[in-house]
Each structure stands twice: as structure tokens, then as C-alpha cells.
Specification:
This protein has about 55 residues and is mainly α. It is built from three helices and no strands. About 0% of the residues are buried.
């Protein structure tokens, strides 16, 4: 019973974090998470930084 309160608090905290991180996705029509891929980042491309998995020897 002592462990139940911290577990429920942790679950609630994670739930709140997910909702806050996904506000645009959940509540904006056509909303989506921004891309985390290197090739989609204009500043990284400008600096000549690319994805390590796409480098050929």
C-alpha cells in the first residue's frame, strides 16, 4: 500500500508530460510532431552536418 502512492504519482506525472508535449498534435487540426531527423533541419544542412548512417566510404 505504501508503494501505491508513488507509483500513481509517477504515472500521473508521465501522463501530464505526454499531454503537454503533445498539445499541438492532440489539439491542433493537422498538427504533428516536428521532425527530429538531421536531414529535415535546415541549420544542420547549412553547416554541412549530415546523418552518420548515410555516409559512404
Amino acid at each position: 500500500m505504501k508503494i501505491l502512492l508513488p507509483v500513481l504519482l509517477a504515472i500521473a506525472l508521465i501522463g501530464v508530460a505526454v499531454v503537454l508535449l503533445g498539445v499541438k498534435v492532440f489539439f491542433v487540426k493537422g498538427g504533428k510532431f516536428p521532425s527530429g531527423h538531421v536531414h529535415d533541419n535546415q541549420e544542420l544542412r547549412r553547416r554541412g552536418i549530415g546523418c552518420a548512417s548515410n555516409r559512404h566510404h
